[in-house]
Amino acid sequence: MLELKDLSVDYGVGESAVHAVRNVDLTLHRGEVLGLAGESGSGKSTLAYGMTRLLAPPGVVAGGSVLYNAAGEEPVDVLRLTDAELRRFRWAQTAIVFQGAMNSLNPVHRIRTQLTDVIRAHEPDTRPAERLDRARELMSLVGIPEDRLESYPHQLSGGMRQRVMIGMALALRPQIVVMDEPTTALDVVMQRQILSRLVKLRERFDFAVLFITHDLSLLAEFSDRIAIMYGGRIVESSPSADLYRDPLHPYSRGLLGSFPALRGARRELTGIPGSPPDLRAMPAGCTFHPRCPLAFDPCARRRPPLAATSPARDVACWLHATPDTED
Ligand code: ATP
Ligand code: SF4
Ligand code: MG
Known about the structure:
Blueprint: E1 2-11, E2 18-28, E3 33-37, H1 44-51, E4 59-68, E5 76-77, H2 83-93, E6 94-97, H3 111-122, H4 128-141, H5 158-170, E7 176-180, H6 188-205, E8 208-213, H7 216-222, E9 225-230, E10 233-239, H8 240-245, H9 250-256, E11 307-310, E12 313-315
Parallel strand pairs: 3-8, 3-9, 6-7, 7-8
Antiparallel strand pairs: 1-2, 1-4, 4-5, 9-10, 10-12, 11-12
Helix pairs in contact: 3-4, 4-5, 5-6
Bound molecules: adenosine-5'-triphosphate, iron/sulfur cluster (SF4) and magnesium ion (MG).
């Protein structure tokens, strides 16, 4: 449904540019929940902004394409849409709930007004009674009592406001929902509730979800696939169950070791020593090599390609590279 090819995003230009996203290939399939995980600063939000063309300066897409395949239509490159086409893509086809989105509700309008305004703006022919019915339905979809339609944003909890934002995002029945979870504003229980609700709605409306979070145990439970980002690159992408059972990339292993498991055997929490790379001056070879406990000869010299180890699994690590991908 959405195919990112060789996508790169920078902040700024020239020598001082921050290379926040580098040569990312990533596919979001129809109806799936794809989790995107990685430490703070690994480029997750930048990827989401870049692929939806919502980057603010000094952010610039430095290269690549984002192919959108609507059912029965020719694929289009989102990065080359006109402004009018882009507006349609953003609302009618892709809905985005960004980090801190719950603070973007207008404080002086009731929730009812904000929901019905979204519908009116995009479907001006609808009647007021119809818009109100749709707003009620959206509230019930995201599990908020209907009488809360009359509330102002400050009268709702953070979690409720986030759910209102999801309701708004779903107002126009999008094909893709991108959700960039705030990691500080919402607690883990709330993140879990929101993701579980989104997964249920997905089963009903058949949209694809890109869910961004630090919390791998959450993704293991709810997502079909997980992509792991490190230093602006995807270092592993796998079906969730495989990644959780047998992470291939040493960084994925470290990330999994940083979170308590919700299910299965207890693991010792280890964390990852060292700090994320400087995106202005990336280490040569494998970006993770300065922190990798398993680094060996080629790692500091040559960058491992993201290569398939099985039909559904890709990993960028010399431990898993087959001879024909070595050169
Ligand atoms: P988090 O988990 O904390 O949300 P993230 O993975 O979403 O992190 P990004 O916000 O995408 O990370 O940031 C990626 C890199 O780009 C970081 O090093 C960040 O400092 C840098 N960056 C982000 N926004 C800007 C900006 N406006 N100008 C310069 N650098 C930026
Ligand atoms: Fe570690 Fe080498 Fe694999 Fe990089 S390529 S993750 S340094 S083993
Ligand atoms: Mg972010």
